[in-house]
Structure formats: structure tokens, C-alpha cells
Amino acid sequence: MYCRSLFLIALALMLTACGGMPTRHLQAFAAQNHMQESVANSTRFSHRIFRNNQSAQGGALNVYLEGDGLPWIFRYFIVSDPTPRQPLMLRLMSMDDNAAVYIGRPCYNGFAKSQNCSNTLWTSGRYSPSVVNSMVEVLREEMQRADVQRVNLFGHSGGGTLAMLIAEQIKETSAIVTLAGNLDTDAWTTLHNYSPLYTSLNPIKRAPIDRQIVQVHLMGGRDGNIPPTLARNWIMQQPNSYGVIFRKFDHSCCWASQWQSVVRQITRRDVPLNFNVTPFKRPEKRYLSSGMVDGVESLKPALEYLVSTNQRFLSFE
Q1: What is the pLDDT along the chain (317 residues), one digit of tens a residue?
Q2: What is the spatial distance between Cα 203 and Cα 54, in angstroms, rounded to a whole number?
Q3: Which residues lie closer than 8 Å to 305 by C-beta, 6 or more apart?
Q4: Which residues pair with 51 in a beta bridge?
Q5: Does residue 56 contact residue 146 with C-beta atoms inside 8 Å?
Q6: 191 and 229 in contact (C-beta within 8 Å)?
Q7: What Rg do the C-alpha atoms of the chain give, in angstroms?
Q8: What is the 3-state secondary structure (H, E, C) of the chain?
Q9: How far is Cα 239 from Cα 276, in angstroms, rounded to an integer?
């Protein structure tokens, strides 16, 4: 037990010493994919942002929101830099040929030691009003810069949490897509026996999102971090909200295989989703086995099926 404790401490110290590496990896990936990097300052915080240099041309701006990164190590040690080691949303944005921006959180991506930052903002307060308000402020500046009147919010894990909270204030939101989104943070902390997120906002305790905003919640059937059951209550109480479960996906794999299809359906609105649906019914078994989970067009028939049958959930085998 003593040796194990020493090992954990040594590992925590090593990760702390390498605090700047995740940000450099982020920057290197962005440069390799010809993204523009800049720093946006809100009233209280600095945010590192990346743009894909595509013109909005009067259309919508796609906004990418990353997950929580690495706030803790083995539940015992708070890291000095929570920047994601594997930035999934930046990778997905590199596949998007629409105007898009990746907005980093306050105190992430090299700003952990900046003024007004403390580790509370990536632990118990990771979805606090100060974080949300700062993200909203930066997003509004990006909307003005890009000269757009509509935005689509894409969020992975805790980025999905932020997407919901940001949409409350950004009335120009057209659609929200979450990937393994944490839509009930209290249920999530209870499931894993984590400390409560005392100073954070919990989406499920907020008023329903504007019914004009289309919500598509993508979930992995093998996701042990945020299992699909945690999203069910949110989806059922929200207007114009749909859930699609990919049974072979987990928390981080294999969203890239579907991403171009996801973006295509959301940006082109090939599927008319904007209307009310009836309460949850289990999808017919015959359709479950026909889902093309590896096909780039698999999302379109899934959403069409949900709409045509007035259902909320669909699972791909």
C-alpha cells in the first residue's frame, strides 16, 4: 500500500511537471491542419481559440466545445493544467468544411496560472456561471467577427454540458449536438461516487431549451463514463430533442467515423426535425438491426426514422 501511494504521488508530480505539453500538442495539431490560433479575452479570463479559416458566407458558425480534460488524477490529486491530452473536438473540427471555431475554456490551454484562475474552475466549478458567462462573451465576439446570425453548438462530454448552458444565453443557436454529453451532472457524480460539483450549473435543473433549437444527443452504448441512461431524463423533458445510441461506441471512440455525416445533416438540415414528438417508445427491433453504424450516411436514416415514428431514441446494433 505504501509503495502504491508513492507511485501515485510520483506519477502526479510527473504529470504536473509536464503541464505545458498538452497545450503544445493542441497548437501543433492546429498548425498541421492549417487552423488560425488566437487568444480572446473576456471580462475576467483568457481563452485560446482556433478557427478553420472557412467563410461563413452568411450561414451559421459551428462552435466546438471540448470535454473536461484531466481535472483530477486518481481522484486524489488536482492537476495544475487540465488541458485535454486527447482533444477530440479539435480533431473533429479539422473534418468540418463549414465555418467553425474551437473555443477553449477559461484557465485551460495554457492559462491555468492566469489571473482569476484557480483549480475550482476545472473541478467543482467547471460549469459555474463565471465559466459559462465568459464562454458566452467570447462566442458573441466570434459571431460578430464572422458576421453570422446563427450558431450550431457541438460539445463532447462536459462540452455538451456547456453547450446546453451557453444556448440559454445565445438565442441565435440553431442546433445543439452532444457526443456523450453530461446532461445531468448530479446523476453523473452520484454514479461514480465523485464529489458534487458544488458551484456548477446542472442542465437538467434548468428551464427547457427553446423548442426552436434542434437537439441531437449521440451516445455510446459502451460508454462507462456517461452511459446513455444518464441522458434519458433530459431528452424526455426537452422539446425537439432526440437521442441516437451507437452500441459499439464508447466515451471517446469512434465518433470521427460518423462526424462528416453528423455535420452534413445539421448544417444542411436534410432532416426536418423541428416539431414536437410523442413520449418515448422503444424502436422496432427490425430497424435496430439495419442501422449502418459504419456507414457515413447512418445518421440520416436514424433521424428520419425518429421523426417519422414520433420517437425520441434509436439504437444502432
Answers
A1: 544 444 444 444 444 444 578 899 999 999 999 999 999 999 999 999 999 989 887 789 999 999 998 988 876 789 999 999 899 999 999 999 999 999 999 999 999 999 999 999 999 999 999 999 999 999 999 999 999 999 999 999 999 999 999 999 999 999 999 999 999 999 999 999 999 999 999 999 999 999 999 899 999 989 999 999 999 888 888 888 888 888 889 999 999 988 988 898 888 765 444 323 333 333 333 333 333 233 334 566 666 666 666 666 666 55
A2: 31
A3: 283, 287, 311, 314
A4: 36, 101
A5: yes
A6: no
A7: 19
A8: CHHHHHHHHHHHHHHHHCCCHHHHHHHHHHHHCCCEEEEEECCCCEEEEEECCCCCCCCEEEEEECCCCCCEECCCEECCCCCCCCCHHHHHHCCCCCCEEEECCCCCCCCCCCCCCCHHHHCCCCCCHHHHHHHHHHHHHHHHHHCCCEEEEEEECHHHHHHHHHHCCCCCEEEEEEECCCCCHHHHHHHHCCCCCCCCCCHHHCCCCCCCCEEEEEEECCCCCCCCHHHHHHHHHCCCEEEEEECCCCCCCCCHHHHHHHHHHHHHCCCCCCCCCCCCCCCCHHHHCCCCCCCCCCHHHHHHHHHHCCCCEEEEC
A9: 6
Q: List, edge to edge, every strand of the sheet that includes 214-220.
A: 36-41, 46-51, 100-103, 60-65, 150-156, 173-179, 214-220, 241-246, 313-316
Residue 159 is placed in which grid cell? 462540452
Q: Which domains does the chain have, with CATH numbers?
A: 2-240 (3.40.50.1820)
